[in-house]
Specification:
By secondary structure, the chain is mainly β. The chain contains five helices and 30 strands. It has three domains: 13-111 and 257-268 and 300-317 and 350-383, Peptidase S8/S53 domain (Rossmann fold, 3-Layer(aba) Sandwich), CATH 3.40.50.200; 117-246, Sandwich (Jelly Rolls), CATH 2.60.120; 418-511, Immunoglobulin-like (Sandwich). Helix content is 12%, strand content 34%. The protein is globular, with a radius of gyration of 25 Å.
């Protein structure tokens, strides 16, 4: 979807950036059963290999003299999820702001829509009872984080009523462990957690096993300066183990996975493009959560905020119902419910956030083709400034949609610079033009409203910094010409953004000197 040339479908299913080159690194796999003469493949994931994978791709791009966007299309909740883990810092070091032509993208996660996050505050001497329903036999992991300034004593009540503990909190820099009926327990002081977090934080990790049942984890505040805790359960998604949930202290949101919480990642999630499809056998198929309808956020999308309180999402992209090529010998090509075109060149449906992230990856490739010097911060700003809003997104930015629905045309136009022969930018009951464009000393913004409304017209640079307010206040129906003085601005591309009547429209203007 990001860069397919469409040849196997005679151009019907072409990727977003079909002229882009591809470098594919196999970093992880969920595993695959033996099929059609192909041997079984065991699952593997080793985050310690990520720096080598990133450096390999970077070296390839450098050798070719080209910019690069990397898509890491995997990830699930767990870890500090605050941008300070080892993996998050690796991403920021190699693809951070100020590094031209290098962008990293991983989607938020597929862990939304289930009570798999717990959060709350424990006060001095108080006990919080976190009840966990383990709905399936097998493994379930609790990963809980709290400030290094605090100390929590821990007890675990197993489904058979056995109480294990209390476990005293270890000192910072130390680790405590234990086990009981159906679980193994670790409590890590600051500096020795399993994810290499650079924030001042402590970690409790409990691996539950065995039959289904309800566990209770008791946290008692023995020394509390802050008291806040955040915890995740894994696996717990709409499509896999949805009845592994927190029964107490459940909080919505906080499902942006650890790598996606990197400060210079481009975090995206998924909305529904088409709720159903017809498979190769003529049957109507759908994915869990698609019943929210076309245009709505897929409820399994990971959403913000991050554990440290940042928005968590940049933009949302169409991900539910996209069509992508399947490798003929892959396990995906055997899933006839998702295959829509069979034979030597099969095509099928790709959904979830993994279906949305390649769309944005292709758009980023187009932006880097337009300007290879853009860095991660500039690319993110271009996508956020030009994102669309509608009745589904509501007022943006927000932790569900970020800045709205990604708009490939508007983002590439922003980077390339607007031209006078482009069509009017239009959204809802308003339209916008700028002329002259490019401009030297000034330009005229023509705003047309279908109905009277309060309107805000602003001018921002490519990094989202507001450089001017052109109008604030009521306007009547019809066309309005607003003069924009550009004489004090340096040469570059700027964004005229209008909000009126619940709609948002944006247009680029290029300042020349």
């Amino acid at each position: 979807m990001a860069a397919g040339n469409g040849r196997a479908s005679d151009g019907l299913y072409t990727g977003v950036a079909p002229d882009a080159d591809l470098v594919i690194v196999k970093f992880t796999t969920e595993g695959a059963a033996a099929h059609d003469g192909e041997p079984a493949e065991a699952p593997f994931y080793n985050p310690a290999l990520l720096p080598a994978a990133l450096d390999f791709v970077d070296a390839m791009a450098t050798a070719e003299g080209k910019p690069v966007v990397i898509l890491a299309n995997f990830g699930s909740v767990g870890g500090p999820m605050d941008g300070t883990s080892t993996i998050a810092r690796v991403i920021d070091e190699r693809f951070g702001a100020g590094i031209p032509g290098r962008v990293f993208l991983t989607g938020s996660s597929d862990d939304g829509g289930v009570d798999n996050h717990a959060g709350g505050t424990v006060t001095q001497g108080e006990t919080a009872e976190i009840r966990i329903r383990k709905g399936h036999a097998g493994a379930l992991r609790l990963n809980l984080w709290y400030p290094a300034s605090d100390r929590f004593t821990v007890e675990v009540v197993s489904p058979n009523g056995a109480v294990t503990g209390p476990y005293a909190p270890p000192a910072n820099g130390a680790r405590a462990s234990g086990s009981g009926s159906g679980f193994v327990y670790y409590h890590n002081g600051d500096g020795v957690d399993f994810f290499g977090a650079a924030s001042a934080t402590r970690e409790i990790l409990i691996d539950f096993s065995g039959a289904a049942g309800t566990f209770t984890v008791r946290l008692t505040g023995t020394s509390v300066a802050d008291g806040r805790f955040d915890a995740s359960l894994n696996p717990s998604t709409l499509y896999s183990r949805p009845d592994n949930v927190f029964e107490t202290y459940a909080e919505a949101g906080y499902t942006v996975w650890d790598a996606a919480a990197a400060r210079d990642n481009l975090p995206v999630n998924s909305y529904v493009l088409q709720p159903t499809w017809t498979d190769v056998d003529g049957a109507t198929q759908t994915y869990p959560g698609n019943d929210v309808g076309m245009g709505e956020l897929w409820p399994g999308s990971g959403v913000g905020p991050t554990y440290d309180g940042r928005l968590g999402i940049a933009v949302s992209a169409p991900g539910q119902g996209n069509i992508t090529p399947y490798a003929p010998r892959s396990i995906f090509a055997t899933a006839r419910y998702s295959v829509i075109r069979d034979g030597d060149a099969p095509y099928g449906v790709l959904g979830f956030v993994s279906g949305a992230a390649p769309v944005v990856t292709g758009i980023v490739a187009l932006l880097l083709d337009a300007d290879p010097t853009l860095d991660a911060a500039q690319v993110r700003a271009a996508l956020e400034q030009t994102a669309r809003t509608d009745a589904f997104t509501g007022v943006v930015p927000n932790t569900q949609w970020g800045y709205g629905k990604v708009d490939a045309y508007a983002a590439t136009a922003l980077v390339r610079g607007g031209t006078a022969d482009e069509p009017d930018a239009r959204s809802g009951g308003l339209s916008l033009t700028t002329a002259p464009n490019p401009a030297h000393g000034g330009t005229t913004v023509t705003l047309t409203l279908d109905a009277p409304s309060s309107a805000s017209v602003t001018l921002s640079d490519l990094l989202g910094r507001r450089v001017g307010v052109l109008h604030e206040g009521p306007l009547g129906a019809g066309a309005h010409r607003i003069a924009a003085d550009l004489s004090g601005l340096p040469a570059g591309v700027y964004l005229v953004r209008v909000e009126a009547g619940g709609a948002v429209v944006a247009r680029t203007v290029t300042v020349v000197r």
